Amino acid sequence: MTELTMTKNQRATFLAEPHVGVLTIEREGFAPLAAPVWYSYEPGGDVVFSFESTSEKLELVLTTGRASLCVQNETMPYKYVTVEGPVTVGETDHEIERGLAHRYLGPEIGDIYLEAVADTMSRVVRLSPTRWRTVDYSAMVDRLLAASAS
Predict the structure, then answer these.
(1) What predicted TM-score, i.e. pTM, was given to this entire model?
(2) Scanning 16, 21, 49, 61, which has the fewest C-beta atoms within 10 Å of its C-beta?
(3) pLDDT tens-digit map of 23-50
């Protein structure tokens, strides 16, 4: 199975791509909360989010201090990266919000979105990856295609 595991460089590069992630946070007495999120990541750094100050996600990360994020390719070759670790919460940062909106919506629609949510208070959340899980089926798919062509 090790052929399916990404290298450190591959996983960092994959996580830095603009996937919609699924953030998971523990909840006492309930199943963990799993919610789709926008994020940014630069290799070697933290995974950065911006959550509304009234969101359950923010409340839970403040309570638990930990979270995990899973991002994936939804088309072949299938790949995923999951990171987990401690989180810290900071104040509103309009540059981070703008960067996320532009990353996922493009500059024009991103600016329209930011105007629409301008009255919403948000907080910056940073997840410091301490544990990684990865799978990349690229090599297996290549091998199967080569075998079927011979």
Answers:
(1) 0.88
(2) 16
(3) 999 999 999 999 999 999 999 999 999 9
